[in-house]
Amino acid sequence: MPVWLLSVAALLLIWLVSAWLAQSRALPTPMAVGSAIVTEFQSGDLVRHMLATLGRVVAAFIVAMAIGAAIGIALGRNQKLNNLFDPWVILFLNIPALVIIVLSYIWFGLNEVAAIGAVALNKIPNVIVTVREGAKSLEPQFAEMARVFRFSRWQTLRHVVLPQLQPYFAAATRSGVSLIWKIVLVVELLGRSNGVGFQIHLHFQLFDVATILAYTLVFVAVMLLVEYLLLQPLEKHARRWRVNHA
Amino acid sequence: MLDVHIRSKQFSSSEGAELSVLKHLGFSCADRSFTCIVGPSGCGKTTTLRCILGLDTEYDGNIAFNNSMHSEACESKVAAVFQEPRLLPWRTVEQNVRLALNHVDNKMLDGLFAELGLSEHREFYPGELSLGLARRVSLARAFAVDPTVLILDEPFVSLDDDTAARLRRLLIKVWSARACTALMVTHNLTEAIELADRILFFSTSPSRVEHEYDIPVPRDERDEAVIQSIRAEVQAFVASGRTSEG
Lengths: 246, 246
Prior knowledge:
The complex is a heterodimer. By secondary structure, chain A is mostly helical. Chain A has 10 helices and no strands. Chain A is globular. By secondary structure, chain B is α/β, with parallel strands linked by helices. Chain B folds into 2 domains: about 1-75 and about 150-240, P-loop containing nucleotide triphosphate hydrolases (Rossmann fold, 3-Layer(aba) Sandwich); about 85-145, no CATH class.
């Protein structure tokens, strides 16, 4: 039996024993959570709210990566620009997620754009910092080769610059996806009428811990699937040219 | 015809000191000629090539490509074989060559790969090739663009003697079949004698052309013995020049 399976089994066992000992609504057994998952699935709520949250995660992720990468490359390549905007990056890096969400709802209203924008804005400074590091360490030899052989701007970006930044994108993606889905839940809790965050808030008011855990576990499972079925294969594809893949 | 006139080229150190690298450097290369530059290390040979390639524009002087071969006013194409192969490691051999081309002529490409013994390696990534093979790909890329001027910066350095000799013969074979003006920097006088029509000897820094030597023997008659006798002659010629200048 692989170690990770044993480890998960041990965790379940500890949960089970604690729930039996506690005998409280505040700590339901794994079986109670399992039946909550089935109930929510059969009513259609689980799928609907899951899709709403997943949609926001994807949208916020794409916006944050695109804007963060563009700014990160610009700052990494241009020292003057970097000196000018570095304080801004540090400022945004240190604004609490909650503040950005609340202000964004106040300024732009309780709508989808404000919600996704707030999540993206929380992530953008991290992407900028990571990609900027990569853009600073671009190999000048390849840039010279591209100039001599008259690569177009697009060719240079696609074949020379972006592949060099790939490890930095991978790092930003990895830390990004987990950060983003946690913030999406807060955004939903504060100002949306669907999504996993909304459901958790609803069942918090009903003190229904089993359903809260049901949503949490299913969403974690979905994010693990995204990691194993999407992100890891993509990264493997991006690293296919590396010879020492032993 | 390639005309190079650099009145002066200086580098400034971070402390503001000026270092003069080239001074009154002038030479020209006839169409379809093969010229080698030999000189002490650090004398500005590579800097000269960088100026010709347009990678360094901070010099006082002018460099002209007067193109009599393609009188229909088509732009002179310059290609380079760098000291390091400078292949994009995340693109295959074939992609690396194709990226340098605006219009891909598949038949030409098949022929070129075959000529350079690379037909088997088109789908390989550069990291999977030996240095000798990577250098051949670098040659393939340079010849693929059908250049009017070909710049080579010590393209055979740090190869074992056999591989270097094989690559020199390959270079001459591919070059002879095409109409381009070649300018090559090398440390190796024997290599220069084997390849060139004419050798330019650079002085120590600040550099200028100290001697020019035209090799009288046709290239295909230069066997080991001929090369050795020319070498002795060249060395005597250079030495006498030095003493006569006092």
